[in-house]
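Here is one chain, start to finish.
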Amino acid sequence: LPMPPSAAPTLTSSSATAINFSWEPTTDIGGAALLSSYKIYIDGTLESTVDADVLSYSYTTGIVAGQSYKMTISAVSEIGEGSLSLPATFWAVATPSAPTFTVQDTSRDSCSIAWSAVTAPANSVINGYVLLFDDGKGGEFEVAYDGSTNPSLLEYTVEGLEKQLTYTITGYAVNKAGNGVNATETTC
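Its structure:
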C-alpha cells in the first residue's frame, strides 16, 4: 500500500468560510502500483478524493466560523488505500491583518521598534507578534523577536546590529489560524 504524505497537511489560508491547505506528495512505493488518488479526511470522515497530481484542497462544505477541523490525507493506488498522514488542525477564522511597524530610536548597534495592535478577526484573538529583520545587506528575513504568545508587548529593541548598515524590517500578527499578513517593510 502507498505511504501517506511524509508530513501533516499545511495551512495555505483560512477564513470564516474556507480552509485551504496542501500536502507533500507520498513517497514512491517501489513500482508495486501507480498512485491513483489522495483521500481527504476532515475530523475522521472522508470529505473528498482528488487525483494523484493534486496536492491542495479547499474545504468549504458545512464549515462553521470559529470552529477547528482536523485534516488527514491518505494515498490510494490500484492495490488499495494506505494509512493516514499525521493530522493537522486548522481553524475556520481569518488570519490577522498587517501591523504597522515604526522605528522609535536607533543607536550604533540597536534599533527600537514599536507596532500597532491589530484588531483580531471574528472568532479569534491575537496571540502575539513576530518581528523580522534582514541582515542589513538585502539578505533573507530572520526572526528578531518572536512574541507569538505575548499579545501585550508592542515594542522591542533589536540589539547587536552592525553599525552603518540599513536593516529592512517587517513582521506579522499571529492568531489561532496562523501567521497574518506581513507588514509594509520599513528600514532602520
